[in-house]
Amino acid sequence: MGSTNELTILEVLLFAMLGMFLMAIAIVLFFVIYQKRILKEQVHTQKLSADHQASLLSASIAGQEKERNRLSKDLHDDIGGLLTTIRLYADQIDVMDSESELKALKEKTTTLVDTTIQSVRQIAYDLHPVILENLGLMEGLQNMVDDINQTKVIHLHFNQGKIPDLTYDQELALFRIIQELVNNTLKHAQATQITLNLEFIENEVELFYTDNGVGYNPDQLTDSGSLGLKNIESRAKLLEGNISYLIAPGSTTVKLNFSV
Amino acid sequence: MTENFISTLLIIPYYFIGLSMLVGILTYRRHTRTQRILFLLIIITAVVEALSTLLWSKKINNMPIFHIYGVVEFLLLSSIYKNKLYSFNSKRWMNVMMILFVGFSLINVLFIQNLHEFNSNGLTFSSLCMIFFSILYFIQLLRESKYSSLERIPMFWINVGVLIYFSSSIFLFHLSNMLIPESLQVRGVAWGVHAIFNVFHYLAFTIALWVRPMN
């Protein structure tokens, strides 16, 4: 080879070329490894999301089945029993002699028919709250609050702010969430007070629900949790809202926000 | 290194150009638009190399061919990237870059480096642009994160070939004219090493023509 200068130039040039080559290889390898890691995480997240959606769907179907079973039981036990008794009374008409006996039978039958009508109305209301459709969410909630307070078992304070008009689906979802929360409190919380606030703050409807009961088991808030809570979550998703739970000794607070 | 070894090294990339042409012919029917542009580039490269070898064997200066080839190579690779760098709104500014490069090459030939001198300015500028485009494409792939089998994407292999080749060669292109003309051995060694990088270049292009793109 030639002079020292030539060797130096060659060394510098080869060093630069090799350095750039190795850097390019490193960039390619880094990219490939990093991209595969991102994809793996995406797949994992998608799987978790799909599993969660399946769980919600399963809970929704189970909820429907539970509702059907309850309806079946109400129809059979309440309505079926009342109609059977009415039938027995009707059969007695043939054997009644006196007008007074017939009059007494008529009164008993009328009472039973009225009770049957009331039971049918209650079952129909439980299935589909007509008051919600006819008079709106606030009237529907006030009606529910009045029914609960009349029992004197628990007191429900309802503070209603001025919220904008919602679609029927939004009102129904919100109504069912509140119904479920109240049912959970009545069944499990051993509470004496419920506070329900419904307000419109910064373009969001905010539901604030709290009771002075024993609180949920935190495990019920996970995927393996209760059917009722999963249904609440499903309905919150329909509203495209965020739901959060704060559980403390002596109180349970649930907050739901969604934009309108 | 012996002169024979360097001579052998300098020939090896030609075999890979031949291999990529063969693969391109065999897979032509299922080529995407990108693969067709790449195949066209490879054909032009083969013709240019053949012509330049012929001229060199007749002791005729073959630099003018490389001046033209540099522009054609830049335009073809840029048209591939123009189509692929969609998330960077590439269609507009890529057209501008292509026009600018042609203008710069003309100015370079007319006023800076003559046609019979190695086209170091044009190739250096072209290399810088290609390195920039290839890194942009990798960034775009990372942002999208939608391809699970990168090895089946032709553009991935084109990008690998472009990044490795132009990164490795940019210093040689820039400094080539500064190497002492009398020192053929130094030039020979440098271009011999360049030939190795060229092998990676055409190997990646061969794979790009071979792979069947995902639906």
Account of the 3D structure:
The complex is a heterodimer of chains A (260) and B (215). Chain A is an alpha+beta fold. Chain A is 66% helix and 15% strand. Chain A has six helices and five strands. Chain A has helices at 4-92, 99-127, 130-135, 137-150, 168-189, 227-238, and strands spanning 155-160, 193-201, 204-211, 242-248, 251-259. Chain A has a five-stranded mixed beta sheet. In chain A, a hairpin with a 2-residue loop joins strand 2 and strand 3 (204-211). The radius of gyration of chain A is 33 Å and the shape is elongated. The model of chain A has no long low-confidence stretch (mean pLDDT 85). Chain B has 215 residues and is mostly helical. In chain B, helix 1 runs parallel beside helix 7, helix 3 (63-84) packs parallel to helix 5 and helix 5 (120-144) runs antiparallel to helix 6 (154-175). The A-B interface holds A 1-2, 6, 9-10, 13-14, 16-18, 20-21, 23-25, 27-28, 31-32, 34-35, 38-39, 42 and B 135, 138, 141-142, 145, 147-148, 150, 160, 163-164, 167-172, 175, 179-180, 182-183, 185-186, 189-190, 193-194, 197.
Write a brief structural summary:
The termini of chain A are far apart. Chain A has helices at residues 4-92, 99-127, 130-135, 137-150, 168-189, 227-238, and strands at 155-160, 193-201, 204-211, 242-248, 251-259. Chain A is an alpha+beta fold.
Task: Itemize the secondary structure elements and their pairings.
The complex is a heterodimer of chains A (260) and B (215).
Chain A: H1 4-92, H2 99-127, H3 130-135, H4 137-150, E1 155-160, H5 168-189, E2 193-201, E3 204-211, H6 227-238, E4 242-248, E5 251-259
Parallel strand pairs in A: 1-2
Antiparallel strand pairs in A: 2-3, 3-5, 4-5
Helix pairs in contact in A: 1-2, 1-6, 4-5, 5-6
Chain B: H1 3-26, H2 33-57, H3 63-84, H4 90-112, H5 120-144, H6 154-175, H7 184-210
